[in-house]
Amino acid sequence: MILQALVDYYDRRCASSDPARRLPAFGLEDKPIPFVIELDADGHVLQLRDTRQPDGKRMRAQHFLVQQGEKKTSGIKANLLWDSAEYVIGLARDRKGGGDTTPAQAFRQRIESLPQDAIDDIGVRAVLAALDAGDWTALHAHPAWQEIELTNPVMTFALAADAGELVCQRPAVVRAAQASGGADAGPQAWCLVEGIHGPTARLHPSVKGVRDAQTSGANVVSFNARAFESYGKTERQGENAPVGERAAFAYTTALNALLGRDSPNKIQIGDATTVIWADRDTTLDAELAALFGDEPDAHVDGIRQRLAGAATGSLGSDDSGLRFFVLGLAPNASRIAVRYWPHERFDRLGPRILQHFDDLRIVRTSDRDPATPSMYRLLTAIAVLGKADNIPPRLAGEWMRAILEGTAYPPALLNAAVNRCRAEQASNAFGGNVPYLRAAILKACINRDHRRRHGLAPDHSFIREELDVNQTDPAYRLGRLFAVLERIQSAAQPGINATIRDRYYGAASSTPGAVFPTVMRLKNAHLKKLSPGMEAFFEKLVGEICGSVVQPALVDFPRQLDLRAQGLFALGYYHQRQSLYAGKAAAPEIDHPTKED
């Protein structure tokens, strides 16, 4: 299914009326080539042209449509009329193995393997003449020569009279290369993707653009051990999953285009490089991808309008039947692992994504906090030291799959958020124990799990966006109480270095029975230092949280709280703290106390 969807995407891009959207035809690839050696018709080197242009702090080479490169491992394989400098001009490099054939010899042999009519082309004859002469002194005078010796860049040839066209792009060369087919073609078999009987691809082209995968590219389809091979197909690469040469080219070309550096369809979710595309041409796939990018705020309303229009038959009425494909890829040695592969219609997928953002919505600490947080910021909020490298493995992929399928979030997400709340009890680097982003994750996890357990509607909220004084859950009320006790202490002792949050939050949220008797006694001492008005206000607030004798809300302090209850404790603490410091439930004199004897 994955390869079929990618082949369909390739065919659609190739048939596009927009030349900028078309993908390379079978046997060709779009390759950045930094250096072009310009020749005259007799094969004399005229100059070395540097195609690179500044792009920020880096230099970006110009892209050319050339014959598809060979899949190289440890041996010597030459591309047709373009390759690295050690192949093109025989630049000396330390190389192990390879037999008696040098890269430069392999490069020439590849050219000589062309049909005679291609060899008779004026451009090919000029290249062969230049290789025979081996006079590269004109290149040594170029300012970039020292860089070439160090980096071994990709190079190719062009005739000075061809106005920018490369020798490998000349019609006779292109016809000959496409007619010859793949050099590594496997046996004849039925293609599992297109259902056509023909030569199969023994080695599939490499896929590039997956973060932390090999820079030379990795494979989605490959077999490297007996355990993965079919019966009777031992060490017969390409026959274990027969894919036609054309289909292998199509799906890898499409995937490389989706994974391109400037692709709007590409996003990074933890360790999973993710691409999103639709089954027909639309801008909606890029908008969906942007929802998980750095600024989802700018796109959420647009998706809502599209969904509403699809439901009413107005704006976006044609979008409801769109099918979207989401492919998450993660590096695995020299191969690529598929993290997730949801595919669904827009009228089902869109509401699930918007439900995710609705579940996350919680009162913000300040206006600087994003109303719609990005996946990257959410994931770093539960990582040690807030670093992306410390995001728990596989968690991002499992979370993304839950969002797209509309299911409960993975238990590891709630566990990670609660643990970070407890572990950072003495640090204000992330906004204290329960910062905005972490509170949003806790709310979303608990609400989703509550709806699933009780079979409630998607819009039901067990935990609301702001402080809920009617919420009777004991753990939530304990969190509220702890926030009030902390505020009493800071009001009684302004400028105190360490509050009860720094000393007791972790224990209070997990074993309240061992901590709350102590902090409640401290509260009595702190209240004596406040003005009568403030003392009365806090006594009333504590009474409201704990309940009365007739209607007690907190009969006793539980010995232990489970993981879900610890999350509710954190949410109660966060809600009450925001309410107090925002002045929504506090009396005006709390911000400006007057101490009386």
Describe this structure in words.
The structure is a single chain. This protein is α+β, with helices and mostly antiparallel strands and 597 residues long. The protein contains 21 helices and 15 strands. The chain has helices at residues 2-14, 85-88, 103-112, 116-119, 122-133, 137-140, 145-151, 171-180, 245-258, 284-291, 297-312, 346-360, 375-381, 395-405, 411-423, 436-454, 474-492, 500-510, 512-527, 532-546, 563-582, and strands at residues 28-32, 35-39, 45-50, 53-55, 58-60, 63-67, 82-84, 154-159, 185-190, 197-201, 266-269, 272-278, 323-332, 335-340, 343-345. The longest helix has 20 residues, at 563-582. 39% of the residues are buried.
What share of the residues does DSSP label as strand, in percent?
5-15%
Q: Count the strands?
A: 15
Shape: elongated
Main beta-sheet strand count, sense and barrel state: 5 strands, antiparallel
| Oligomeric state, counting identical vs distinct chains | single chain
Helix content: 40-55%
- Integer average pLDDT: 85
Q: Count of helices? A: 21
Runs with pLDDT <50, length 5+?
584-597
